[in-house]
Amino acid sequence: MKRIAVLTSGGDSSGMNAAVRAVSRAGMSAGLEVYGINYGYKGLVEGDIVQLEPLDLDGRIASGGTFLHSARFPEFAEESVQLKGIEQLKRHGIEALVVIGGDGSYHGALKLTKHGFNSIGIPGTIDNDIPGTDFTIGFDTAVNCATEALDRINDTARSHQRTFIVEVMGRGAGDIALWSGIACGADAIIIPERDYDIQEIADIIVRNKEHGKEHSLIVIAEGVMSADDFKRQLDEHGDFDSRAITLGHIQRGGRPTAKDRVLASLFGDYAVKLLLEGKGGLAIGIHNNELEAHDIIDTLENHKHHTDVALQDLNNRLRF
Ligand SMILES: Nc1ncnc2c1ncn2[C@@H]1O[C@H](COP(=O)(O)OP(=O)(O)O)[C@@H](O)[C@H]1O
Ligand SMILES: O=P(O)(O)OC[C@H]1O[C@](O)(COP(=O)(O)O)[C@@H](O)[C@@H]1O
Ligand SMILES: [Mg+2]
């Protein structure tokens, strides 16, 4: 193999740049030419493909976003569009593709694999919702961002004896809510994986007040409903002087944590190692602190991400 390419796709996540750097530097160290594809699958189909040089990677490990840019490009679900992408890869003499992205991007890599083009997925999304890995690149940074925001909100909640409902990201997964909620001592964490009882939440706030804790913090994952909608429900069960906040895209940006940088470096290096061994059609992950690679088709078709819902029980045991 002489030439590989790398792209980032779907919602950006901090640490994607570190992963592109790792794939590129590991490839270059092994004598490969590494090409960067701009704007995800959109750029692939349009042929926006450029060779990366060592200097292109300088300083990237510490930066947020993705310097290769990303895109939501639903057209890539069509077979004719996928085949156009493969044509572009072949035209550039590229023999394997590393896709850094979330569950949607993995489906794109799966389709390329099914068409016979060697593709490897590296998990990059703040949602942590990809099967075949315990952690995705960007999750730790997003959790730390949400944690800092929740700490700040707790300060003002305590000062004004208020109840805050804070919506964190996670399209269909409660992982960010669980980790940031536990880290901030939330009074309740509402996640899409489990039902909730609004009366029970109202009772927690009342009980807090009866025992001298006059402020409360409720963390809700966006996959359940908006903070505003939840506030409306809660308001029907009492006057808690509540405020609703949506953290939004601040969770997606910023300098990656050291953990995300190291994870990205491990994944990128491992992807190149596998390609050099002649392996492909794989989804890379980390499980119990060991790097793993699984068949991408089997991973996506037969497995689901399992949010560690026991973390909610932990929070319920530890809260006020
Ligand atoms: N079923 C699919 N088949 C082919 N490509 C897909 C599929 N689903 C998503 N993609 C591609 O992956 C891109 C990113 O997916 P998306 O769900 O937006 O983000 P993420 O990868 O972060 O989950 C989509 O815009 C599309 O180009
Ligand atoms: O930035 P957009 O396109 O509005 O998408 C928001 C979504 O992207 C995310 O931030 C990341 O999800 P993906 O990795 O699937 O792109 C979700 O948490 C959120 O629901
Ligand atoms: Mg996704």
The total of helices stands at 11
Please write the string of helix (H) and strand (E) elements. Answer: EHEHEHEHEHEHEHEHEHEEHH
- Our estimate of the beta-strand percent is 15-25%
Ligands, ions, cofactors: adenosine-5'-diphosphate, 1,6-di-O-phosphono-beta-D-fructofuranose, magnesium ion
Strand order of the largest sheet: 3-2-1-4-5-10-11
- Shape category: elongated
Distance between the termini: 58 Å
Major sheet attributes = 7 strands, mixed
Low-confidence stretches: none
User: Which whole number gives the mean pLDDT?
Assistant: 97
Judged by helices, strands and strand pairing, the structural class is: alpha/beta
Number of separate domains: 2
Radius of gyration from the CA trace? 21 Å
CATH architecture of the largest domain: 3-Layer(aba) Sandwich
Specify the CATH class of the largest domain: Alpha Beta
Catalytic activity: beta-D-fructose 6-phosphate + ATP = beta-D-fructose 1,6-bisphosphate + ADP + H(+)
GO molecular function: 6-phosphofructokinase activity; AMP binding; ATP binding; fructose-6-phosphate binding; identical protein binding; metal ion binding; monosaccharide binding
GO cellular component, one term: 6-phosphofructokinase complex
Subunit structure: Homotetramer.
